Each structure stands twice: as structure tokens, then as C-alpha cells.
Amino acid sequence: MTGFVPYQELAGIPNIIVDGSAAGGTLITLSHWPHSGTPTPLKDDLSTQIVFRYLKAPEFHVEAAAVSNNHFDEDGLAGLYAILHPEDALALEPLLVDVAAAGDFGTYRFPEAARAAFVLSAFADPDLSPFGSALFARPYPEVTALLYRETLPRLPEILREADRFRDLWISEQDLLDASEKAIRSGEITIRELPLLDLAVVELPEALPGRGVHRFTQKRHAAYHPMALHNATHCFRVLLVQGRCYELQYRYESWVQHISRRPLPRVDLEPLALRLTEQEKNGGRWEFDGVGEITPRLRLEGSEESAIPPDLFLRQVADYLETAPPAWDPYDQ
Question: CA 30 from chain center: how many Å?
């Protein structure tokens, strides 16, 4: 294998795709993406875990001239690093897998993995990146290629010497610490409805929003997603902050999650229409779409809903219980 080749430059070169979809010349896809075609014995929750399964299964090895990915994120980076540096990666396997989980699923076991995810997100943030804002004016495929070329050789240093990158992770670490403290103290409460795979999260009304990252993308939230996702196994999350509500599908329900299958996603558009009819302040409920990676049902055009919290939860629960499945990412 000659090394990393940008996705748009593969041009039929025999290749391995990590954490994405096959291209021309792809010999094997190592990806948890929907309908990726990854061989069944290699499947796992994260693409990085799939890569490690591949490394330990010589019967699946292929003679590829390139390895590639069509987007930049932590799971893709960790998986590419493992393919390109298998001996070093196997020594770092638990940490690399945790970096991938921190990026994709918003969960972590090792603090250094969470910090590595924060650093990688900062690298991909035009306002924070040490690579300069001019990079991000280029087309996305070029940005992706340049980010991989810059971060692949840096990944071991990011994992082992996190303090050297403190300026890039300290802000998110502070929010993560504060969010975990709020959950432990009961300031943020989580009630699980296991039969619906639903966590109902109540947030203080005065809790302000701050900038965070998911999938190396900017987000705005009143808590850090890693704190919440570490505290519940539910893959549907209803956020309640006074009369502000938001229903989310976690990323695990978009991919082929193997260790525990989430309940299938249902289309929330009919629920959005039903809720809009009950609003009195000109608000409109919108759903991003069942096929989006982390779709949300949220109110637009009004600061808060006219629907009381108990009634809102009851309607959400009734709909989730009765609506038909609308998303199936699994290979048959």
C-alpha cells in the first residue's frame, strides 16, 4: 500500500475505503456507514474497530495501492492511521477506538481520548485551526485531504502529549467538566424510557448555550454532548428546558451499530405537523429528515412552545410507540 490518497484523486486506483462509501477501484470497504458492504465478520460499531478487525484477519487482506476517506473526522482519522501504521496502532488500539467513539458517538472512557477529539475538532475549525483560515476557503474535498495530511503524522503526539495542545482543548474540557458535575448534582436530570429507547433530559432554564464540536463540526449547546451520552444508553434524546424542547436521534442510529441495535428511527415529520397545529405563538415544528446523521425535531419562529411539558412528552412517547420504522442502515 502506498499510503493515503485523497478520495477525489483515486481515479480507479485499487483502494481501501475507511469510514465512508466505496469509490471506483475499491477492493474492500471498512466502514460502519449504512449499507457499506463491509464483510460481516469484520463489522463493529465504529469504523476504527472494523479496521482493527481487518488487521487481525489476514484472510480479508487485499493488495491495495491506496487508502482513502471522503470526509474528515475522528473515526476516519483513527481508522486511516491504523491501516497506514498497523504496528504502532495496535499498541494504541484502546485509545484510538476511544478517540473514534468520542468523535462519532460523543462518548469516551479515557480523558486523553476526549481531549484528542477536541484538538482534532479545533484543527478543523476555521476560527481555531493552526493551519490558517485560508485553508477552509478551498473546496471541501481539498480541505479533507489537507487535514488528513496534516493530522495523520501528528496523531501519536496529540494522544501522548495532550498538554502541548492545551489551548485547543481547554475550553471544551471546562464545559465537559461542568456538564458532568451538573448531571452528578442533579441540576441536569435524565429519565430513561427503555421501551422507547428514549432519554428525557431536563435542563435548567437559565443554563446558557456555548460552542461545542461534534464530528469536527461546530455546534451550540447548553451542555457538552459527551457528558450526556456517557450518562445514558438511549439513542433517542428529548431535551426539555422550560418550554423549549428538542428531540434528537443519536448518530448510533444512523450507522450499522452492532453491539446493540437501536430501535429503528421513525419519521418525525407527521409529528412535527401535529405539534405545529397546537402552537399559538406563530412557531413551526421542523424535522431535519430521518436520513440525516443526527436529525433534530425543533421549534422555529418562536422562543418557546405553547405546549405544556407533560403534554409534549406524552405526545412524543405515543408517536414513537406507534409510528412505523423509516430507517434501516444494515446490510442484508
Answer: 17
Q: How far apart are CA 233 and CA 194, in angstroms?
A: 9
Structure confidence at residue 282 as a pLDDT band (50, 70, 90)? confident
Return the exposure string of 189-216: e unless at least 16 CB atoms fall within 10 Å of the residue's CB, then b: eeeebeebbbbbbbbeeebeebebbbbb
- Encode the chain in three state secondary structure: CCCECCHHHCCCCCEEEECCCCCCCEEEEECCCCCCCCCHHHCCCCHHHHHHHHHCCHHHCCCCCEEECCCCCHHHHHHHHHHHCHHHHHHCHHHHHHHHHHHHCCCCCCHHHHHHHHHHHHHCCCCCCCCCHHHHHCCHHHHHHHHHHHHCCCHHHHHHCHHHHHHHHHHHHHHHHHHHHHHHHCCCEEEEEHHHCEEEEECCCCCCCEEEEECCEEEEECCCHHHHHHHCCCCEEEEEECCEEEEEECHHHCCCCCCCCCCCCECCHHHHHHHHCCCCCCCEEEECCCCCCCCEEEEECCCCCCCCHHHHHHHHHHHHHHCCECCCCCCC
**How many Cα atoms sit within 13 Å of 285 on the Cβ side?**
24
pLDDT in tens, 20-70: 999 999 999 999 999 999 999 999 999 999 999 999 999 999 999 999 999
Give me the residues paired with residue 202 across strands: 189, 240
pLDDT band at 212 (very low <50, low <70, confident <90, very high): low
Residues 250-263: pLDDT tens digits? 999 999 999 999 99
Q: Rounded CA gap, 307 and 321, in Å?
A: 20
Is the pLDDT confidence value at 188 over 90? Answer: yes
Domain residue ranges in the chain? 7-168, 172-322
Determine the residue type at 120: L
Nine cell digits for residue 257: 451499530
Single out the residue of 296, 298, 191, 170 nearest to residue 243, CA to CA.
298
